[in-house]
Amino acid sequence: MKLAEGIRRHGFRTWYERELLQSHAHLALSFLCLIGIFAAVEAAMRFRGWADQLFDIFATLLLVATGLWALRRYLHLLHHAELAAHQAECPQCKAYGRLQLLQADDSGEYVQVVCRACQHVWLIDNR
Ligand SMILES: [Zn+2]
């Protein structure tokens, strides 16, 4: 979910928490794919026929592709969540995460926010 949409729907802290949970779910998926790769490679080492061998190779390739996609998605989500989190502290009163969305650009990643504590306005660049 884009930063602007997340702040608008759930607030910054909940958006951040959800992004971290989603990114770590992708990390868990990549770990499960790694276990599946080990199992498929071990199964491929025992020759039982060409059909089984092709299935094992196909399963290995599918698990490698899924695991790499999940790992990439984990890093992407974590990077964006941390990038926003490092800019979520009010420059004036140092309140963390107590912000409200004012406006955003079309991409939803460059947002103007206002502090709920002191009404200071600043920009968060999450591109
Ligand atoms: Zn403030």
| Rg, nearest Å | 21 Å
Domain unit count: 1
What is the number of E strands?
3
Query: Numbering strands along the chain, what is their spatial order in the largest sheet?
Result: 1-2-3
Largest sheet: 3 strands, antiparallel
Number of helices: 3
Order of helices and strands: HHHEEE
Task: Please tell me about this protein's structure.
The protein has a three-stranded antiparallel beta sheet, covered by helices on one side. The chain starts with a helix and ends with a strand. The chain is α+β, with helices and mostly antiparallel strands. Strand 1 and strand 2 form a beta hairpin. The model has no long low-confidence stretch (mean pLDDT 94). Helix 1 crosses helix 2 and helix 2 packs antiparallel against helix 3. It has three helices and three strands; from the N terminus they run αααβββ. Helix content is 61%, strand content 13%. The protein binds zinc ion (ZN). The site of zinc ion (ZN) has 8 residues, from loops.
Q: What's the SSE blueprint?
A:
Elements: H1 3-10, H2 12-45, H3 50-85, E1 99-104, E2 110-115, E3 121-125
Antiparallel strand pairs: 1-2, 2-3
Helix pairs in contact: 1-2, 2-3
The protein binds zinc ion.
Zinc ion binds at residues 90, 92-93, 95, 115, 117-118, 120.
